[in-house]
TrEMBL record:
Protein name: MFS transporter
Entry keyword Transmembrane helix: yes
TM spans (from-to): 9-35, 41-64, 76-100, 106-127, 134-156, 162-183, 208-229, 241-261, 273-290, 296-320, 332-354, 366-385
Organism: Companilactobacillus baiquanensis
Lineage: Bacteria, Bacillati, Bacillota, Bacilli, Lactobacillales
Chief localization: membrane
Places the protein is found: Cell membrane
């Protein structure tokens, strides 16, 4: 690695790009009513702008990681941001809803591969005991996007039209492209060679498979509600469109605080921290259900949900890297990519189930879907903790046996 570039600069460049990407992922949540009116589609169909995007990340992250595994990291990052800009440009100029979705897919493919490699770079450039915090810094770009990018994009859409919102994303993507070009070193280390067989090596490890399922369900539990948050705030809680923009800012601030705390909590014992975070998110979703038709108390529940929504991300991403280092050391980058896919399996699953509820006229009951997902996550996390304890005992026994044989 180029010693002239400090880890702080590298993390900053990754966070800037993550900001552009994070603004894109959730922009359609803020402009959903505008899109449905323009293209004359239902709210459930409009939700495809979230679920299809997530599916693009879900499939794109592992496939593109395999294809680009030995590519120069800086050139890959620059190429990612170029395709990101093009995808948003297509969305901005889309004459039909389906072309808009095509632009979203192109952008999503860029998103998936970016998050997979950026997480590894962030973890590699700091001391081992700061890896979760480094990943949290990189993901701060996503949370800052939730604080400012999504509300600003929503404000632009409400005042200049939704196409201007996507042009705003084009500008953000171009800034990310420039920062990658200027700040990311040319000689970042390449991951070890891997192949499609590595996917099976990862999935056949019970602990790795469990954490992927936990990632999908635990992270995705927010999205049956979050995908339709603008509509919930407006129709159920009776907040005006102007007020919603401000609420989205405070929601994003809550997400940013939660993400930072999550990184700190997960540094030493990520799995134990994750269990507590999941329980907190479950309580937040129960509050959402109880206050769905309340004006001010509903707002409080939304902000509490924001606090816990992304809190689990650094721990989930760190823990799968730790497991991969132990069980599949040649497939660490692929494990990271699969976990990025798992995040988006959760988004797809959660937003799709939420869409089904909305289609059935059950917008008010979308929190129950998330509550069910988080309950399964809690159970599986407890199972994973027990598996980890057994492995620790087993390793100690093997050492004792080895010592006895030596003696």
């Amino acid at each position: 690695m180029n010693n002239k570039v400090s880890s702080n600069w590298i993390l900053m460049s990754l966070a800037i790009s993550a900001f552009a990407i994070g603004s894109t992922e959730f922009i359609s949540v803020g402009i959903m009513p505008l899109l449905t009116r323009t293209f004359n589609v239902s709210l459930a169909t409009g939700g495809l702008t979230v679920s299809i995007y997530a599916m693009g990340i879900m499939f794109g992250a592992p496939i593109l990681t395999l294809l680009t595994n030995r590519w120069n990291r800086k050139k890959l990052l620059v190429g990612i941001m170029i395709s990101f800009v093009l995808g948003n440009l297509i969305a901005a100029l889309a004459p039909t809803f389906w072309i808009l979705l095509a632009g979203r897919v192109i952008t999503a493919l860029s998103h998936g591969i970016f998050m997979a490699i950026a997480s590894l770079i962030a973890a590699d450039v700091v001391a081992p005991n700061k890896r979760a915090s480094a990943i949290a810094i990189m993901f701060t770009g996503l949370t800052v996007a939730t604080v400012t990018g999504v509300p600003l994009g929503t404000f632009i859409g409400q005042n200049l039209g939704w196409r201007a919102s996507f042009l705003f994303l084009v500008i953000l993507g171009f800034i990310g492209l420039i920062t990658n070009f200027m700040l990311v070193p040319n000689d970042l280390p390449l991951p070890r060679p891997t192949s499609v067989k590595g996917i099976w090596k990862i999935l056949k490890q019970p602990q790795l498979l469990l954490i992927l399922i936990i990632t999908a369900l635990g992270y995705g539990a927010t999205f049956p509600v979050y995908t339709y948050l603008t509509t919930i705030l407006n129709k159920q809680m009776q907040w005006s469109q102007a007020a919603i923009v401000i609420i989205l800012v405070f929601y994003g601030l809550a997400v940013a605080v939660g993400n930072t705390l999550g990184g700190r909590f997960a540094n030493s014992n990520p799995l134990s921290a994750l269990l507590k975070m999941f329980i907190g998110l479950g309580v937040a979703l129960i509050l959402m259900e109880l206050t769905m038709n309340m004006h001010f108390l509903g707002l409080v529940a939304v902000l509490v949900m924001g606090l816990f929504a992304f809190m689990n991300v650094p721990g989930l991403q760190l823990y799968i890297v730790q497991l991969a280092e132990k069980f599949t050391p040649n497939e660490i980058s692929l494990a990271s990519a699969l976990n990025i896919s798992a995040f988006n399996v959760g988004i797809t699953f959660g937003s799709t189930l939420g869409g089904q509820a909305v289609s059935a006229g059950q917008l008010i009951n979308t929190p129950w879907i998330g509550i069910g997902m988080i309950l399964i996550s809690v159970v599986l996390t407890v199972v994973l903790m027990k598996l980890g304890n057994k492995n620790i005992v087993s390793s100690e026994d093997l050492k004792l046996q080895s010592n006895c044989q030596t003696k």
